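User: Could you go from structure to sequence for me? I need the amino acid at each position, not a summary. Structure tokens:
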């Protein structure tokens, strides 16, 4: 039977104290996730601060609530509960992981959807917190996730970073491109070819090169429109494609 006492149990002192501890844990995990993600963002990688922050925070939420099972369901764990809640939670986060993987798209060196996948996973953890009765922690997790999604792009626009551009070049039939020449062209425009990123192929007698160019710093790299004009004048280049790395 639903009573006022049963509803108030979700907001009693011990339960609220547990929620506050969870919130502090989430805040610390989010900041640490930002720290690790900034290193990836700075070097122009697809997964950046938002992705790392969301994953780190959601993982911390699942781990910390496992330490307070006596506060689940407002401290009123149903007697003779037929299923183990921890196994249910495990199944949820695993299933949502597959769902998130479905929104990640890879085209050449360009990867998109990582942050969307991480936000879906964080939303599932918010649902888990609501399910076990950690309402305040669930609200705070949802707010932190939203703040992360909205404010991090603004914050990263002011932080030092290295722009990354995925480049595909198709050369004329029979033309043998010179790697040093390509690297010099990139250096001239404020970029360096990322180590180990060059992929070379041959299609219908034409050489095709794909690689990632990373700017030296936030202001050194030429705009993508300027870089396109530069590449159009490279000897032997028949066609090309440029795209910003994004997540």
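Assistant: Here is the amino acid at each position, in order:
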């Amino acid at each position: 039977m639903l009573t006022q006492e049963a509803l108030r149990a979700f907001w009693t002192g011990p339960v609220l104290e547990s929620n506050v501890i969870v919130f502090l844990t989430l805040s610390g995990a989010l900041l640490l996730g930002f720290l690790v993600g900034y290193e990836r963002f700075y070097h122009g990688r697809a997964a950046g601060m938002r992705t790392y922050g969301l994953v780190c925070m959601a993982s911390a939420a699942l781990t910390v609530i496992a330490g307070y099972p006596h506060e689940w369901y407002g401290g009123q764990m149903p007697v003779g509960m037929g299923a183990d809640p921890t196994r249910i939670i495990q199944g949820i986060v695993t299933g949502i992981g597959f769902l998130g993987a479905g929104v990640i798209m890879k085209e050449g060196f360009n990867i998109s959807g990582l942050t969307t996948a991480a936000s879906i996973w964080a939303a599932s953890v918010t649902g888990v917190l609501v399910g076990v009765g950690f309402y305040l922690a669930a609200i705070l997790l949802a707010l932190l996730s939203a703040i992360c999604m909205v404010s991090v792009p603004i914050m990263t626009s002011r932080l030092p970073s290295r722009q990354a551009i995925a480049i595909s070049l198709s050369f004329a039939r029979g033309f043998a491109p010179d790697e040093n020449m390509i690297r010099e062209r990139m250096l001239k425009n404020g970029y360096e070819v990322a180590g180990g990123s060059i992929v070379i192929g041959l299609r219908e007698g034409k050489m095709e090169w794909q690689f990632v160019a990373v700017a030296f710093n936030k202001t050194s790299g030429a705009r993508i429109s300027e870089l396109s004009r530069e590449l159009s004048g490279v000897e032997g280049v028949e066609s090309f494609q440029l795209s910003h790395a994004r997540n």
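One structural detail worth keeping in mind: The mean pLDDT is 80.
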